[in-house]
Amino acid sequence: QEELVESGGGLVQPGGSLRLTCTASPSIFSGNTMNWYRQFPGKQREKVASITWGGVPNVLDSVKGRFTISRDIAQNVVYLQLNSLTPDDTAVYYCNTVVTTWNGRRTYWGQGTQVTVSS
After folding, report:
1. How far apart (Å, rounded) are the C-alpha atoms in residues 48 and 23?
2. Percentage of residues in the chain with pLDDT exceeding 70?
3. pLDDT grade, residue 101 (50/70/90)?
4. Cβ burial 11-32 (10 Å sphere, 16+ → b, else e)
Protein backbone atom coordinates (compact mmCIF):
# COMPACT_ATOMS: atom_id res chain seq x y z
CA GLN A 1 0.00 0.00 0.00
CA GLU A 2 1.36 3.42 -0.99
CA GLU A 3 2.26 5.77 1.86
CA LEU A 4 1.89 8.96 -0.22
CA VAL A 5 -0.32 9.34 -3.29
CA GLU A 6 -0.58 12.51 -5.40
CA SER A 7 -3.43 13.44 -7.69
CA GLY A 8 -4.86 16.48 -9.45
CA GLY A 9 -2.31 17.14 -12.17
CA GLY A 10 -3.21 17.61 -15.79
CA LEU A 11 -3.04 19.82 -18.86
CA VAL A 12 -4.13 23.44 -18.44
CA GLN A 13 -3.87 26.67 -20.41
CA PRO A 14 -1.69 29.57 -19.23
CA GLY A 15 -3.51 31.47 -16.50
CA GLY A 16 -5.38 28.38 -15.40
CA SER A 17 -5.48 26.67 -12.01
CA LEU A 18 -5.04 23.21 -10.56
CA ARG A 19 -5.43 21.78 -7.08
CA LEU A 20 -2.99 19.01 -6.26
CA THR A 21 -3.79 16.55 -3.48
CA CYS A 22 -1.44 14.38 -1.45
CA THR A 23 -3.11 11.62 0.52
CA ALA A 24 -0.92 10.21 3.28
CA SER A 25 -1.05 7.18 5.50
CA PRO A 26 -1.98 8.30 9.01
CA SER A 27 1.15 6.70 10.44
CA ILE A 28 3.46 9.07 8.52
CA PHE A 29 1.16 12.10 8.49
CA SER A 30 0.69 12.69 12.20
CA GLY A 31 3.26 14.99 13.77
CA ASN A 32 5.26 15.63 10.59
CA THR A 33 5.99 18.44 8.18
CA MET A 34 4.60 17.73 4.72
CA ASN A 35 6.35 19.02 1.60
CA TRP A 36 5.69 19.56 -2.09
CA TYR A 37 8.56 19.34 -4.57
CA ARG A 38 8.63 19.72 -8.32
CA GLN A 39 11.03 18.50 -10.97
CA PHE A 40 11.45 20.14 -14.36
CA PRO A 41 12.56 17.96 -17.27
CA GLY A 42 16.29 17.39 -17.04
CA LYS A 43 16.57 19.25 -13.73
CA GLN A 44 16.87 18.33 -10.06
CA ARG A 45 13.91 18.45 -7.74
CA GLU A 46 13.21 21.67 -5.86
CA LYS A 47 11.06 22.24 -2.80
CA VAL A 48 7.99 24.29 -3.62
CA ALA A 49 6.10 24.41 -0.34
CA SER A 50 5.83 22.91 3.13
CA ILE A 51 3.42 22.93 6.01
CA THR A 52 4.29 21.99 9.58
CA TRP A 53 2.21 19.83 11.87
CA GLY A 54 1.30 23.05 13.65
CA GLY A 55 -0.12 24.38 10.39
CA VAL A 56 2.59 26.92 9.52
CA PRO A 57 2.99 27.15 5.73
CA ASN A 58 6.02 28.12 3.70
CA VAL A 59 6.13 28.63 -0.05
CA LEU A 60 9.03 29.17 -2.43
CA ASP A 61 9.55 32.90 -2.93
CA SER A 62 9.31 32.65 -6.69
CA VAL A 63 5.75 31.26 -6.53
CA LYS A 64 4.37 33.20 -3.57
CA GLY A 65 1.09 34.82 -4.45
CA ARG A 66 0.27 32.05 -6.93
CA PHE A 67 0.75 28.80 -4.96
CA THR A 68 -0.86 28.00 -1.61
CA ILE A 69 -0.31 24.97 0.61
CA SER A 70 -2.94 23.75 3.06
CA ARG A 71 -3.98 20.56 4.79
CA ASP A 72 -6.94 18.67 6.21
CA ILE A 73 -5.85 16.72 9.26
CA ALA A 74 -9.09 14.78 9.50
CA GLN A 75 -8.57 13.34 6.01
CA ASN A 76 -4.76 13.05 6.13
CA VAL A 77 -4.35 15.15 3.00
CA VAL A 78 -2.18 18.07 1.93
CA TYR A 79 -3.18 20.37 -0.90
CA LEU A 80 -1.19 22.56 -3.24
CA GLN A 81 -3.31 25.16 -5.00
CA LEU A 82 -1.70 26.34 -8.23
CA ASN A 83 -3.06 29.58 -9.69
CA SER A 84 -2.06 31.80 -12.60
CA LEU A 85 -0.08 28.97 -14.12
CA THR A 86 2.53 29.60 -16.78
CA PRO A 87 4.42 27.20 -19.07
CA ASP A 88 7.40 27.58 -16.71
CA ASP A 89 5.38 25.71 -14.06
CA THR A 90 5.33 22.57 -16.19
CA ALA A 91 6.87 19.81 -14.06
CA VAL A 92 6.20 16.65 -12.14
CA TYR A 93 5.01 17.54 -8.65
CA TYR A 94 5.85 15.23 -5.73
CA CYS A 95 4.64 14.91 -2.17
CA ASN A 96 7.32 14.27 0.45
CA THR A 97 7.86 13.82 4.15
CA VAL A 98 10.61 12.63 6.48
CA VAL A 99 9.63 10.50 9.45
CA THR A 100 11.87 10.09 12.49
CA THR A 101 11.42 6.99 14.62
CA TRP A 102 13.35 5.41 17.44
CA ASN A 103 15.27 3.42 14.78
CA GLY A 104 16.16 6.34 12.51
CA ARG A 105 14.79 8.50 9.71
CA ARG A 106 12.85 7.44 6.63
CA THR A 107 12.14 9.60 3.59
CA TYR A 108 8.88 9.10 1.71
CA TRP A 109 7.98 10.18 -1.83
CA GLY A 110 4.79 9.87 -3.77
CA GLN A 111 4.68 8.70 -7.36
CA GLY A 112 4.35 12.23 -8.72
CA THR A 113 1.65 13.98 -10.71
CA GLN A 114 2.31 15.72 -14.02
CA VAL A 115 1.39 19.38 -14.45
CA THR A 116 1.56 20.63 -18.03
CA VAL A 117 0.78 24.24 -18.96
CA SER A 118 0.37 24.83 -22.68
CA SER A 119 1.69 27.93 -24.37
Report:
1. 17
2. 99
3. confident
4. ebeeeeebebbbbbeeebbeeb
